[in-house]
Amino acid sequence: MSAHKRPSDDGKLLELIAKGDHQAFRVIYDKYYKRIYLYSYRQLGEGEGAKEVANEVMLAVWKGAKQFRGESKPSTWIFGIAVNKVRKEIRKRPPHHEDLDAAEKKVDEKLTQDDVTYRSELRKRMKLAIDRLSREHREVLDMTYYQGLSIKEIAKIMDCPANTVKTRMFYARKRLGGILQEMGIEIGGGA
Amino acid sequence: MKLKKKRGSLCPEGMDLLLPWYLNGTLGQGEKEAVKKHLKSCSICKEEFKEIKREQKLYQSTTEEIPVPQTFPHLMAAIEKREQGSVWQRIASLIPRPQPALAAALIATQFIVIVGLVGLLALNPWGAGERFYRTLSGPTSIEGKGPRLSILFQDGVQEKTAREVILAINGTIVRGPSPMGIYTVELRSVMNPEEIQGIISALRQKRDVIRFVEVQGE
Prior knowledge:
The complex is a heterodimer. Chain A is mainly α. Chain A is built from 9 helices and no strands. The radius of gyration of chain A is 18 Å and the shape is globular. The N and C termini of chain B lie far apart (135 Å). By secondary structure, chain B is of the alpha+beta class. In chain B, a hairpin with a 6-residue loop joins β2 and β3. The radius of gyration of chain B is 51 Å and the shape is rod-shaped. Chains A and B meet through α2, α3, α6, α7 and α9 of A and α3 and α4 of B.
């Protein structure tokens, strides 16, 4: 999550990519692919689509590096591409009708106080809770908690004012907290 | 500890809205210092911050076990394939592209050359074609002033033979064949009666080819 701290490095790498430098592309790939893949995975809820989207994003970076003007941070630009690609992919897909209650019940059955199993089940419940959030809430949570982006960067990517980002995050957390509470999440002091 | 949100009791200064970004370290220096100072005195934000930390940790843990595919070689192969393009694209890429001004000059030159050639062919100053080939009939001969002969060829005479006969007398078919098979052939120049008679005599000697020949209008 240090991309936003080293914008000039990434900017230089994008310049090199624009000239067709494969090594520079490899560096950017190593730095962003995992984050983009996992972002797509969390948004789409499955791996195959996430891989496809992440590859498309990297291809777009390769092809579009010439168009990068440095008006935003390279990480903002790259995540902007990722957010748009994921949104496009979500629009293409039929509405999600997963039986979340049944899935939660399945997790309940497995829940034990064994530490390793407990943490694993906790993660599964969190994932279920995230799946129940709206796209906007998932996006703002992910960009803040996982991608480590600033309010300004998120505002640029989501094309909304900074205050909207703050309130959206507030309501996303509120909704997430409500869902977790419904699911009886016990985090414990060391979690 | 149970995650229990008390959203109704927000920080009066609204500092809790900045806490997620205080945690991820992206606040500006001023906001960062303000939040840091505020946290020392606000119990609501202090509690909220602890919850945000747990939330973030739990959030990040959801994808801990997900394997990330290694697609770089596949991606590079796709890029290289795309860059190489088709055979024609590669050939086209070898041809240097002229500058716009040069390209415009080339197009103008081509246009002038084409117009010039068309004009030259239309004027036909050397009489090209006429010298080497002429048809046995045609509009140019219909208005001619030469004498006209009526010729009836023998049955079974081939077109090639008839053609040779007509060309030998420098004639042109201007009409025919009639229902009786008679051709009207015009001689190409004004002739005196002796010359015409000579031609008729010559034709009449070709009995295996010509059945009948006479001057029209006599």
